[in-house]
Amino acid sequence: MTRLIFLGPPGAGKGTQAKNLAEFLQIPHISTGDILRQAIQDQTNLGMQAQSFMDKGELVPDKLVEDMVEERLKQPDAQTGWILDGFPRKVTQAKFLGGLLINLHEGGEKVINLDAPDAVVIKRLLGRGRKDDTEEVIRRRLEIYRDETAPLINYYSDRQQLLTVNGNQSQEEVFSDLKNIIAA
Ligand code: ADP
Hints:
Layout lengths: L1 E6 L6 H12 L3 E3 H10 L3 H12 L5 H12 L7 E5 L5 H13 L6 E6 L2 H11 L6 H15 L1 H8 L3 E5 L4 H13 L1
Parallel strand pairs: 1-3, 1-4, 2-3, 4-5
Helix pairs in contact: 1-9, 2-3, 6-7
Bound molecules: adenosine-5'-diphosphate (ADP).
The site of adenosine-5'-diphosphate (ADP) has 16 residues, from α2 and α3.
C-alpha cells in the first residue's frame, strides 16, 4: 500500500513525476490543480468559485479544496493507495488531512519533497505557458509557496515522514531517485 504526498515549489516537476510514479505503482494520481482546472473548464460551481484565486496565483480557500480531496479519497480506486499532488499546501490543510486519514483508517503516508532552486523553477514555468504562468503570477505563487507551503517541510520532517529528492536533474534521474527512495 503506497500513500505519497508530493511537496515542492511550482515548477519542481511534481506533476510530471507524480503522474509517472502513479502509473508505475498503479495507484491514482490526485492533483488538486488538475481537478480545479477541470472544474473551471466544466464551469461547475467549484470551478467558478476557484477561478479568480487561481488566475491571481492565490490559494483557493481551504474548505473548497478540503471537501474536494475528502470526496476523492473516498472513491473506490483510492482504497489501494494514492499520490497526492498539490495538497496539502499549508499547515491547516495538513492538519485537516491528518484527521481525515485517521477517520478513513488510512496512515503510513510518506511525503516527498521535490526540491529545486528558484531560478530553475522560474525558467521552467515561463517555458510552460499555462494561463497562470505569467511572470507576475509566478512570482506570487513562489511567494505563497515560501510563506505557506515550505513550512510543511519541517512539519512532516518533525513527524519523520519526509523524504527529499533533488528536482534539479533530468526527468529520468528524478524518476529513478523516486523509485529508489520509495523502495528503501
Ligand atoms: P503549481 O504547483 O505548478 O503552481 P498546481 O496545478 O498544483 O500548480 O496549482 C495551481 C493552482 O491551483 C494554485 O496556484 C492554487 O490557486 C490552486 N490550488 C491547487 N491546490 C491547492 C490547494 N491545496 N489549496 C489551495 N489552492 C490550491
